[in-house]
Fold this protein.
Amino acid sequence: MTDIAARVYNHTWKIDPIIRSVLDTDFYKLLMGQTIFRRHPTVKVTFGLHNRTTSVRVADIVDEGALREQLDHVRSLSLTRGESTWLRGNMFYGKRQMFSPEYIAWLEGFRFPPYHLEKRDGQYELTFEGPWIETSMWEIPALAVINELRSRAVLKDMGKFELQILYARAMARVWEKVEYLRSIGPVSITDFGTRRRHGFLWQDWCVQALTEGLGTGFLGTSNCLIAMRREVEAIGTNAHELPMVYAALATSDAELRRAPYQVLADWQEDYEGNLRVMLPDTYGTTGFLAHAPDWVARWTGVRIDSKEPVEGGEEMIRWWRARGQDPADKLVIFSDALDVKEVARIHAAFDGRLRMGFGWGTLLTNDFRGLAPGGALDPISIVCKVVSANGRPTVKLSDNPTKAMGPPDEIARYKKTFEVGAQEARPALV
């Protein structure tokens, strides 16, 4: 097993780059990429970094030269022969040849496009412009780079013994969480922690800990590279990015209202089974469900992200029952700011009523809260989102208005179009 403390003490970026592979990304990026590749190869988009934890001045912590070195390293990466073979021949979600030969060929030739970096008021303005299929691939590596460089900046002045104690405490914390999960009964856990991880080596350690500690209760990881190396399942479905771009491309209010359902119509042409999990909260879950076509109710399940999870689960149960579906047959994935006590609360509310899965993210792979002076290693809420498509601004409303994104006038238009009323704001924790 890797001695993480020694590695952190000794590493330089040249022997320990933050992003090690094109596959050091989340599986849903490859799934969405295939849909984009097939249907929207000419759409131009811009992605941008946004730190919602404004009290943490990332640009004052992370050296710009080091950031550019890591981003430039990412641009040098390409898919290896072994990685291509894994994508071509591995079974994902019970299906071989999940990815078409044409899409794999594109991935083999893919290189990360240029980036634009500036400093403004203690934050980095990091943007990526170009074809959607290319810029989309930057989201996960960009976030991983920023988060790990922040961690490295805090750790660089620590001695060998201090680092050993730090990681020993963090490991004990993870294992205590594993033991807690075992105590509440059978639960299905997936690692969703790539985007805001403490570091690659730490995420890899966490996956190994869950594999041993939870056994069959650990379903796999969203990280493709770790899934390949550790021979666990690669897990993921789709994200807000798809409806945000589809909506921005709409040329009328009627087309705008149809956009979230057009995403699902395209998705079900590409994927089946447990990949047919909808994400309804981009423009408000309640409105999405009220106007959803009947065929949407037959999908395998739903991912509840920004809505209060128990409230969201109960809403889905009522909706499925009203449409003649048995909620006990439906898969519900909970994924927003989860930690073990929240998993236990949700599990108790729906045990025997739903098929549950939990996407455990930042508080699995980056829970160093209180382990460094002044909370210097506490995780922050940072995202990299699509901000425009073909020159039009993108909008995300969310069930939590704290997470809303877009120009104020466009947010107002979208709220009117999607009939979004008063919403309760909740902190965007991680």
About this structure: DSSP finds 18 helices and 13 strands in the chain. The longest helix spans residues 160-183. The CA atoms of residues 117 and 334 lie 34 Å apart. The domain at 4-370+381-417 is CATH 3.20.140.10 (nicotinate phosphoribosyltransferase).
